[in-house]
Amino acid sequence: MSRAEDIFQKLIYFGEDALNEFIVNMQSEELFLDFKQSFNTSQQGNSLNSNDRKNLAKAISGFGNSEGGVLVWGVECYRDIEIGDVARAKVKIKNVHKFLSWLENAISGCTIPSHNRVRNHIISADESGNGFIATYIPRSDVAPLMSIFGNNIYIRSGSNNVPAPYAVIAGMFGRRPQPNVELQLTEKNVDIIDEIEDFLHPKKDKPSKYVRINFSINAKNESNVIARELYLSCSSNSDGEYSRLRFSNYNQLDFIGGIEGQLNLITKPDFRLPPRGMIKMTNASIIISEDIEGDFILEGVVGADSSAPKDFRIYANKNKLRSFIAKIMRDENLNGELAAIEFFNDFLVTVE
Q1: Contact in structure between 232 and 267 (CB atoms under 8 Å)
Q2: Count of CB atoms within 10 A of residue 113's CB?
Q3: Cβ-contact 350, 2 below 8 angstroms
Q4: Is the pTM for the entire model greater than 0.90?
Q5: CATH number of the domain within which 312 lies
Q6: Domain endpoint, select from 173, 204, 226
Q7: Residue 57 — φ and ψ, nearest 5°?
Q8: Do 233 and 264 meet the contact criterion of CB atoms below 8 Å apart?
């Protein structure tokens, strides 16, 4: 999952609480995130305000020509000298459902060529129909995208969309479309299991229960071209007295031997993954004792031939991990899927 999609999924899952967190933490605009207020000050009109349309076109061009991003509608910013434009307050969009339809109708006409993978989501709406919207703009496979306003080709630079230099534009025209392989974690679940035989626990009074986090590591081709030679490499510090990491069901892939604690997989030479296709690389289980004494770290990378590698990391500080385990152990009505969502929201980091 890309950084932009990670932000978008957070807004979908946590809703307005995610916006509140942006404001409390003084979240600044950055490479993958932009805030805008709507110029739609009333419920009147039949189309998107011209200023909103310009902001949308600029964002689609800038994010689409770069690594993607999220535009959040309904957040006021202020300029901080040290960290840039910072989220300060929520400013609700009038008639958010109508605004959503205006956005949907405007997208195809904002850039040349159009970006057909832009998605919108209503973050929240009150009883009066006012609220907030997130617009997810993934990287475009048909770059460069030119905004119809001023005929500029934008790229994302820091926290701004800026006109692309001539050399960058020339490179875009000469660039052959490349696969874009993203990490996808599915089948996530948390359960409690009895003592396992191969756990080297030094204490005489061994715990009778362990927490197990199950998930599948998948690679998804988000591009419009075929991906070949997909790979996954993982390493962990987990094999020891208090935690274990187990992989299974990767027989359809070629295993490349490595150092202890490392897993290296690559698809077979004749394998091809079509656009929007997904392949399961392996199943994984993290098994943890409540006596864990160190941080848990799992680092990995997914990719394909001619595509940029995508790094990911699961890092759990020992104190936070102990708190998570204790909470799971106390929960008499454990919802494994919700617990897994909490675990990965707290401890998974993806790096572009």
Answers
A1: no
A2: 12
A3: yes
A4: no
A5: 2.60.40.10
A6: 173
A7: -60, -40
A8: yes
